[in-house]
Amino acid sequence: MGDVSAVGCEVDQVGTRLVVRLDGELTLASAPGVRAALSKCLVDVPDALIVDLAALRVAEPVALSVFRTVHWQAALWPGTPMLLCAPAGDTARLLAGGGYGRLAVYPSVTAALSARPARRMPMVGDTVLPTDGASRRARDLAEQACARWNLPALAAPAAMIAGELVTNAIVHARTMADLRLSLGRRHLVIAVRDGSAELPRVCEGPDASPATGRGLRLVEAFARRWGIMPAQGGKVVWAGVPLGQPRIKTVAGRR
């Protein structure tokens, strides 16, 4: 059992699923370690990530939001459902009434293992090589995904975002990029994983050239929200576009 900033983490594989048992005191200080440990478990893309909270003591209830964060991360990349196990008690009550989102909570590991995992989001993806045609390939894939899911109004913004994110990865990370488009209930999510831990920055100024890092200004303009997640050996940059008619925010210096 390894120490995760006051929380121990024990991982077992049960078939094609991973069971993670947390033991210790969950606080705002220990929550980042918990997130890192659970994120590491997603690298092997299990069919489900089952987190046993039976031995976890919640010292600061607000720290339970770490599971909402990991749930979102797992759904976004690599598309793995996360199931929490919390026997009747304080932790179960906090999760039920604390506004932590749509978290699947089961009374035991046995119950979670017996449950059918939630259906994964429809998804298309590809690995893009660091070549001159990378951005074009990303745009084509985004347009194909929107055609498959009957989202013609999103084809242009999705293609722009996919192209910018892949170009940013190729230019700055200088590695291959894994592009993935996922269809959620409310958003089309475009995510790109690369092999660099260096975080991109949104540069100020009128020029939106990807080579200068300002292409992320365009991503900001078309996406409802976007962000960066650490990943094993690199990072994931993602953006979500509403399934309704996209609203374009103003980009300084552009018309």
Can you put this structure into words, describing what you see?
The protein has 255 residues and is of the alpha/beta class. It folds into 2 domains: 2-114, STAS domain (Transcription Regulator spoIIAA), CATH 3.30.750.24; 123-242, Heat Shock Protein 90, CATH 3.30.565.10. Helices cover 31% and strands 29% of the residues. It is built from 7 helices and 11 strands. It has helices at residues 31-41, 65-76, 90-97, 109-114, 134-148, 155-173, 216-222; strands spanning 2-3, 7-14, 17-26, 49-58, 82-85, 104-106, 123-128, 177-183, 187-194, 225-231, 234-242. It has a 6-stranded mixed beta sheet. The chain has a 5-stranded antiparallel beta sheet with strand order 7-8-9-11-10, with helices on one face. Helix 1 runs parallel beside helix 2 (65-76) and helix 6 runs antiparallel to helix 7. The longest helix is centred in the middle third of the chain and has 19 residues, at 155-173. The mean pLDDT is 84.
* Low-pLDDT residue spans: none
Shape: elongated
| Fraction of helical residues | 25-40%
Largest sheet: 6 strands, mixed
**In CATH terms, what is the architecture of the largest domain?**
2-Layer Sandwich
CATH homologous superfamily grouping of the largest domain: Histidine kinase-like ATPase, C-terminal domain
How many distinct folded domains? 2
Structural class: alpha/beta
If you compute it from the alpha carbons, what radius of gyration comes out, rounded to the nearest whole angstrom?
Answer: 19 Å
Which whole number gives the mean pLDDT?
A: 84
Q: The CATH topology of the largest domain, please?
A: Heat Shock Protein 90
